[in-house]
Design a protein that fits this description.
By secondary structure, the protein is an alpha+beta fold. The protein is built from 19 helices and 26 strands. 39% of the residues lie in helices and 24% in strands. Helix 11 crosses helix 12 and helix 18 crosses helix 19.
Length: 599
């Protein structure tokens, strides 16, 4: 049966973004070299193949990559609930095969009106190329039919040689250049990226999922990264077409890119990008450069906060980063890196791991026990802090029957801190036995931070050093601690038990890293900074009584670095300092009245 589904031209419905620019979605037409395309059926799948590719993709027994299986020639590079992407080598040529999985009946019914995902994305790639923007070339797409409806589809695109994702280029390729070359290479990169994105928007292309992973970078024909670069736009499922983008729609598109690249770029690099973008846009009603930068930075913060609030529940489901396992003996949430053998052992008897390492205790209290243990991961054995949560008394045990699990809450909040780039000991696995329900113990394993000591121990050790060395290291520690806590509060995260023993310091000489641990009392708020930010820092400041050598200059360095983590004008660090001092004095006085040690 020959398939003639592409003989009509599919038209995408105009969305609100197109209406905002008073444009319309263009009809997607096939280019001339697809007029002689091949249409045929094989194994209940109807295919459309570009001229010259049938012998490469298909053999006497059907698809060549299905005959190869999952060997060296076929590599799965991305897996998801709705699609899987493979890289396939065929006759010395590389192609990418995107397999869209079967859907529920509602999705199948919707596809009857708008076409299969593979055909839609293939048409959009062709339209992007027709508008003069480099992209991957589709060479075939197929639709698997069952009872007259399309249940699965395939899109085959030709691989682009010598390219990498934009984020990989920034983190690996640029850093491999010499110290004299890499600053110039980054400048050239952001100039070219600004011009290229302006070209896309002038062509009327709106990508709703524009981030560094969907932009490919390739050195130009001369091969010199210091001169020019070529950029490619991929993953066209989220592309819409219309007239040249107006500023409100372009700002929405640029916000995603600005948010994702916020931590990997500097302020000057972002300004260089915006300057080149604005210079190459015509008639879009763009504001001045200063307004563009201010608007995008504000929108980027809001976008990131919304994005992470939506992603916070990922740690409770199975996906490419996490696993959720519900067994007959226990329920587990873990990272994908943990081996199955370790998970089976932990699920069967989680208490055995604790008693196996009882000779390495870290913390012993009424409500929790912590030991240093070792777990096997895909990267080899890893030291972890293995924590056992237990109810303090019968009333606490009774309340836990109706309330939340402390270990599960620590797992979720620990992952939330890690995903936001806040240095912390990342949780690796949580084990919650099914029985007994009353008085049940739960277990949490987190990364062990090598070479770390809590802030009090570090301060007492530093007090024994000579004055010059102590001043240098204390200044580095104050700035690192200011970045850590400022970033945490800028994300709207408060720590109800922020004290020196819950802050770890790793001293590597010229570089000092700080970590926040014990996420039991962490709170995620919608305020920036949270209303309890001053109270958090006051608890920490009250403990400075144990270190009388800490000067006001060090506190000033801490607060100035803390304020830099917020958008400009958010924090008045001098007024904030006075508020913290008053609260810290009240905390210290209350402890003295009770006869407690001020720590």
């Amino acid at each position: 049966m020959l398939y003639s589904g592409m003989e009509h031209r599919s038209q995408l419905p105009a969305g609100p973004e197109a209406l905002a620019c008073k444009g319309r979605t263009d009809r997607l037409a096939l280019p001339d070299h697809w007029d002689d395309e091949l249409r045929f059926s094989a194994h209940r799948t109807r295919w459309q193949v570009a001229a010259g590719w049938r012998t490469i993709l298909f053999g006497p027994e059907g698809l060549r990559w299905e005959a190869l299986g999952m060997g060296r020639s076929v590599t799965a590079i991305k897996r998801g609930a709705h699609r899987t992407v493979y890289r396939v080598e065929l006759s010395g040529r590389h192609v990418y095969v995107k397999h869209f999985h079967s859907k529920r009946w509602l999705g199948i019914a919707i596809d009857l009106m708008r076409g299969s995902p593979a055909r839609r994305e293939g048409c959009r790639l062709l339209e992007i190329a027709r508008r003069g923007v480099p992209t991957s070339r589709p060479v075939a797409w197929g639709e698997r039919v069952w009872c007259g409806v399309v249940t699965e589809s395939y899109l085959v695109t030709e691989a682009i040689g010598s390219v990498c994702r934009l984020d990989e280029y920034l983190s690996h390729h640029v850093t491999m250049l010499s110290s004299n070359e890499w600053p110039a290479a980054r400048r050239q990169l952001f100039r070219g990226l600004g011009r290229w994105l302006a070209r896309i928007h002038e062509a009327g292309i709106y990508h709703r999922d524009l981030h560094a992973g969907n932009i490919l970078v390739s050195p130009a024909a001369d091969g010199d990264p210091l001169h020019s670069l070529d950029f490619y736009l991929i993953d066209a499922w989220a592309v819409r077409f219309g007239k040249p983008l107006c500023w409100p729609l372009a700002r929405e598109n640029l916000t995603t890119l600005a948010a994702i690249g916020r931590d990997s770029t500097t302020r000057s690099e972002r300004l260089r990008f915006w300057r080149n973008y604005v210079a190459h846009r015509s008639g879009a009603g763009l504001p001045d450069l200063a307004s563009v930068n201010a608007e995008l930075q504000t929108d980027a913060w809001r976008f990131l906060r919304r994005l992470h609030r939506r992603r916070d529940k990922r740690s409770l489901r199975t996906n490419r980063d996490y696993r959720a396992i519900r067994g007959s003996a226990a329920r587990l949430h873990c990272l994908q890196t943990l081996s199955d053998a370790v998970l089976r052992e932990l699920g069967r008897d989680p208490d055995a791991t604790f008693w196996k390492h009882i000779e390495q205790p870290v913390k012993l209290s009424h409500s929790s026990l912590v030991v240093r243990a070792t777990l096997s991961t895909s990267d080899g054995p890893r030291s972890v802090a293995y924590k056992c949560y237990r109810p303090r008394n019968w009333w606490k045990a009774f309340c836990r029957l109706f309330g939340g699990d402390r270990a599960l809450r620590s797992w979720r909040l620990g992952q939330a801190l890690y995903e936001r780039g806040i240095p912390t000991a990342r949780p690796l696995v949580i084990i919650s036995p099914n029985r007994p329900r009353f008085g049940r113990r739960t277990y949490l394993a987190t990364e062990w931070v090598e070479g770390a000591e809590n802030l009090h121990l570090y301060g007492w050790r530093l007090a024994k050093a000579d004055e010059a060395q102590r001043g240098r290291q204390a200044a580095r520690c104050a700035r690192s601690l200011g970045r850590l806590l400022g970033r945490m509060h800028a994300w709207g995260i408060s720590h109800g038990d922020l004290k020196a023993t819950n802050l770890l310091v790793v001293d590597r000489g010229e570089q000092i890293e700080t970590y926040v641990i014990d996420t039991d009392d962490v709170r995620l708020t919608r305020h920036q900074p949270p209303k309890t930010a001053a109270a958090d820092l006051a608890r920490l400041a009250a403990g400075l009584a144990a270190h009388p050598w800490v000067s006001r200059t060090m506190c000033c360095r801490f607060l100035r670095e803390y304020a830099r983590q917020f958008p400009r004008g958010t924090i008045d660090w001098k007024q904030f300092w006075k508020e913290i001092s008053r609260s810290a004095a009240r905390i210290a006085a209350r402890k003295r009245r009770r006869g407690e040690t001020v720590l």
